[in-house]
Design brief:
Number of strands: 11
Strand order of the largest sheet: 1-2-4-3
């Protein structure tokens, strides 16, 4: 469907996301088929490739409901326990208004202004600059912010980051991303399981050029010898097909998961600008977070939920987020913001500032101010001639001297009064 504005882009993105999630479910059945191929070879290694392919198809039909039930059960478990698992990994702790009044008030004002239910607020003790939203229903929604982000960003920038995460919740990105991570985890788990089975199977194949599970099923007849000559190649072909399917399923699951994440960051940035009406705050927040968002010890699944993920793959194929520059360029182009370029944090410039503020050690100390009977006298300049006898240091031959403009205009002032 064509998209012409922000909300049609959101609707179009949701439709594509549903298709991508359906594709992830299909990858589970691809893995089941690959596992059926490996199982058929392990049961009887003396058959042709056509035999294995046809029997694996029948096995897939039989295992279809069980595979679906297993995938749904995995999702249900993650539905109730994913937040606890994420908190255990990141160390995020819930905070109240009394503990974080500044952060709590900023989030509450955004929610009240737009009629959005207030999510739970959590703080993660980390010097990294990042934030992420999680949850699968309104009772589970939460936004986690690092302590480093709170120290480095001002109120407007923090408000922009909170608006970014609220947009993820409002658009349903959080639910889709959590489900995508779960399904991709299923694909990765079973893919690794089948790969290990294949590795053990290949190692157990010993002398005679066949698989160990099929050596006892062969007879000594000439027809069985002919079958074994053709079946050894069939088993090898089927195993190669199974391994290719497993690798393809894993690769596509990662690409689909990353596509879901990358396509939604631009919309979340735009949604933050819509909430805060301040594109410059979102731009400056992204520039400060840039390359400073790495959460030590966090899994890749957690990093995929963050405002920025500095972990990248080759040729940007496995990068979960678009680059900060591309996101800033989009905000400049469509929201009218201004890009200040890469920004340094206050603690990164404090040393230089302290050096500039320190007085020069090698220079001469400033001359003292002289206190005379008629007030303070400014220090004499080194190039000024000495005062005449009978005059004070501030008194010239023509009257009082201004330290900047020279002789003052008007009646002359002497030691005992005015002179006409």
């Amino acid at each position: 469907m064509a998209a012409y504005g922000l909300y049609t882009h959101i609707a179009s993105n949701k439709f594509r996301s549903i298709l991508l999630l359906a594709g992830l479910f299909l990858l589970i059945y691809v893995l089941v088929y690959a596992g059926a191929l490996v199982a058929e070879v392990m049961i009887d290694g003396g058959r042709t490739a056509d035999y294995y392919l046809s029997h694996a198809s029948r096995d897939l039909v039989s295992a279809f409901p069980w595979a679906t039930i297993a995938a749904v059960a995995w999702i249900v478990i993650a539905y109730f326990f994913h937040q606890k698992m994420i908190d255990a990994v990141t160390g995020g702790e819930s905070v109240t208004r009394q503990q974080q009044p500044r952060l709590y008030n900023l989030l509450e004002n955004l929610c009240i202004s737009r009629g959005i239910p207030m999510p739970k607020l959590k703080v993660m003790d980390s010097p990294a600059l990042n934030a992420f939203a999680t949850g699968l229903n309104p009772r589970q929604y939460s936004i986690t912010v690092t302590t480093g982000l709170l120290k480095a960003l001002n109120d407007q920038e923090i408000e922009a980051v909170l608006g970014h995460e609220l947009t993820h919740i409002k658009n349903g990105d959080v639910q889709l991303m959590v489900v995508a991570v779960i399904i991709a985890g299923v694909v990765g788990f079973f893919g690794e399981l089948f790969f290990r089975l294949f590795t053990n199977l290949s190692w157990s194949g010993g002398s005679g050029g066949g698989w160990s599970s099929s050596s006892s099923s062969r007879s000594s007849s000439s027809s069985s010898d002919r079958d074994s000559k053709g079946s050894g190649g069939g088993a090898i072909i089927v195993i190669i097909i199974a391994v290719a399917l497993i690798m393809l399923a894993w690769l596509l699951s990662q690409v689909v998961k990353l596509a879901l994440s990358r396509s939604r960051e631009f919309l979340a940035d735009a949604g933050s600008v819509e909430l805060t009406k301040n594109p410059d705050a979102m731009i400056s927040a992204l520039r400060k977070i840039e390359n400073r968002g790495e959460l030590p010890g966090a899994t890749s699944a957690v990093m995929e939920l963050c405002v920025d993920n500095p972990r990248e793959g080759f040729a940007d194929l496995f990068a979960t987020h678009p680059s900060v520059k591309s996101r800033v360029d989009a905000l400049v182009k469509y929201a009218g913001g201004h890009d200040p370029g890469p920004l340094a944090l206050p603690d990164e410039t404090s040393d230089a500032t302290e050096t500039q503020d320190q007085p020069s050690v090698s220079g001469d100390p400033p001359p003292p101010v002289t206190h005379g009977p008629w007030g303070d006298t400014p220090p004499a300049q080194p190039n000024n001639p000495p005062p005449l006898p009978g005059t004070s240091p501030a008194q010239g031959p023509l009257g009082p001297l201004d330290p900047v403009q020279g002789p003052l205009q008007g009646p002359l002032q002497g030691p005992w009064g005015r002179h006409r």
